[in-house]
C-alpha cells in the first residue's frame, strides 16, 4: 500500500524547505505580508530599521551638537529653529533625541546579544545533556527569572557603576534566563527527533550532535524572543537612567532626559518630557510588533514541524 | 538453528533484556512497592552471521525496534549481553563505542525524520567521514584535501545508491527530495562508513510500493557488493519474504520462533507465526484461505501474561500454557460486557473491579446470601470459556464468603529445537 501524503505534509515541506532558519523566517515574512502577523512584523521591521538609520546617521541628521547649550532662555517650546524645543539647560531636544537613539540601540545590542551568547549555548548543553547539571542550571536560571527585572538590573547597575557597557551587562543578567529557557525547551523537543538518534548512531559525540544537528534547528525560535527582549531592554535601560542608575550626564539618553525634564512638567514644559517618552514608546512598540508578529508566523511552523 | 562457521558471527544477543520504567506521578511512585516497568525486550537471544539477512518480524509494539536500537547501542540493555564481532559491547561507552559505530549502522523507518532539515544532502552523507575523520588519517591531510576526498567519496556513494544526478542533489536540502530519494540518502550516509552490520528498522515501510521494491533491490545489491550483514526489522511479512535468509518472529518482547525463512514460510510451527502468515494476502482469488486471526489485542507489556505470552490469544492453546487468575477476570469482563450473554450475571459476579487476582488465584468476596449462586454462575461462565482455560482450573472453592478460583501451575516453557529452527511453544516440547 502506498503512503498517500496528506496535503498538509506537503505544505510543511514547502515551509521548511529553505536552508536556514533565518531564511525560512524571511520566506514566511514575504508570504504572509497580508496577514495581521505579517503587517505587524513589517511595521516592526520598519521601525527598527529607521531607528538604526537614525542612530547611524545621527551626526549628519542632527541640526546641532546634542551637548551644545544655547544661550537663549532654557525650556524653549518647539519652533522651526528647535523642532522639539530645548531642555532646561538650553540644549536642542531634537538633536538629543536622534543621538539618544544611538545610546538606546547600543545598550540594547550589548545587552541582548550578550544574553543570547550566554543563554543559548548553556540552554543547548543543559537541554541536551540533562541530568544533574540541567537541574542545577534550571534552578539557578529560574531563581534569576523570578526576580523582578528592573530591580535586578538596578542592583547590578549599582554594583557595576554607570556607563553604556555596564548598563548593557545589567540588562544581560535579566535576559540570560529567558534565552536559556527558550533554548532549553526547544532543545528538549529537537533532542527527540530521529535525526538526532541517527547522528548518535553515526558515532557523533555530544558536541557534534549539539552543534551540527540541534543548534541550527533550535535557532528558529530565537528571533521572536530576540525582538521581545529587545523591546523590554529599551524600557529597562530607560528605566535605569530615569532612576539615575544608568548613564552619566550629559550623555544624550531618552531615560535620562525624561528624568531631568519631569520636574518642569508642572510649569507647563511638556515637550522635554513628551518627546523622549514618545521615542521610547515608538521603538518599544515597534519591536514588540515584530516579536508578536514573528511569534504568530513562526509558531505554526514549529507546530507543523513537530507533527 | 543452523550454525555454520562460528567465527563468522557478526552480532550475537545473549538473553537481552530492555525494560523501560513507567512514568508515574511522584506520590504513586512512593506508594508502589514494585517499580512498574515495560518489558519491551525480555530475554531475546539470537545471532547473525556474516553475509546473512535476519528478519525480525512482529506486530507493532512487540519490541522489535527496541531490539534494533539496543543492538547498535542506541539504547542501553537492562541486562544480557551484546556481542559485536566477538566483542562484548553491552557495557562499553564513550570513545570506544563511538569508534565502533563505524562498523554498525542503523536505518530508521522515516527517511524524512532521519535527515537533519538544516543540513544539505551532500554534507549529511559526508558527515560520518568528518565524525570519524581521525580514523581516516585526517591529521596527515590538509583540510582542503580532506574536504575534496570526502566530496569525492560522497559523490561516488550517491551514484552507488542511485541518488542521481548527484552533482545537483549534493547541495539540496532534505525538504527538496522525494521520499525514495531521502531513503537513498539515508542509506548512502550509513554506507559511506563501510559498516559490517546494517540494522534496517522498517526501512521501506514508509515508501510507495514501486519505490519500495527498488530500495529493497538496492539493499540486496549492496549486500552482494560489500558483503553486508543485515538485521532487517519489519512488520511486513511480504517484504521479509523477499529479502530475508532467516526469520525471527517476535511477540511481546520474546522471540517465539526463529529459523530459515523458507522453512518458516513453508511450514510455520508456532501458532503465532501461523496466525501472522495467514494475514499475508495471497494475490490469487481462488486460493482464499480461512483466516484465524488472533483474538483480542496485544497485551500490556507492563504485566505480560504468565507462561507463554501468546496464550490468551492463541488458537491452539493448551491448559498448561500459563493460565492464571487474571485471564479468568479478563474473560469475565468480556462476558459481562455483552448483555445478551451475560443476562443478570453482573448482579452476582460484578462489578468486575471487585475481583482480586494473585498469580494463579482469582477471588471474589460475594454479596451476602448468594455465595452458592456465585459459584454456580462462575461454573456457567466457565462453560462458555475457552476449553483450555476451563481445563486449567484446578478448583472453584469457597472460603467464608469468598469465591476462590485456583488454576493449575503451567508447564515450564523452553526453547525447543524443531528441525533447524527454535520454537518456544509447549506444543513442541
Describe this entry's structure for a reader.
Chain A has one domain: MetI-like (MetI-like fold, Orthogonal Bundle). Chain A contains 13 helices and no strands. Chain A has helices at residues 7-15, 21-31, 36-56, 58-61, 93-129, 131-146, 149-160, 164-191, 194-201, 206-218, 222-242, 254-261, 271-306. In chain A, helix 8 crosses helix 10. Chain A is elongated. Residues 1-19 of chain A have low confidence and may be disordered. Chain B is an alpha+beta fold and 429 residues long. Among the domains of chain B are: 6-118 and 173-266, P-loop containing nucleotide triphosphate hydrolases (Rossmann fold); 323-407, no CATH class. Chain B has 17 helices and 16 strands. Chain B has helices at residues 26-31, 64-71, 94-100, 111-114, 121-131, 143-160, 166-169, 179-191, 209-226, 237-243, 261-266, 271-279, 325-336, 339-342, 345-349, 371-384, 387-392, and strands at residues 9-21, 37-49, 53-57, 79-84, 87-88, 104-107, 197-201, 229-234, 246-251, 254-260, 355-358, 361-365, 393-399, 402-407, 416-418, 421-423. Chain B has an 8-stranded mixed β-sheet with strand order 6-7-8-3-9-10-16-15, with helices on both faces. A 4-stranded antiparallel β-sheet of chain B has the order 2-1-4-5, with helices on one face. In chain B, a hairpin with a 2-residue loop joins strand 13 (393-399) and strand 14. In chain B, helix 5 packs across helix 6 and helix 5 runs parallel beside helix 8. Chain A binds chain B through residues 1-3, 13-14, 16-21, 193-195, 197-205, 208, 212-213, 216-217, 305, and chain B through 69, 72, 74, 98-102, 105-106, 108, 110, 113-120, 127-128, 131-132, 173, 175-176, 179, 186, 189, 193, 206-210.
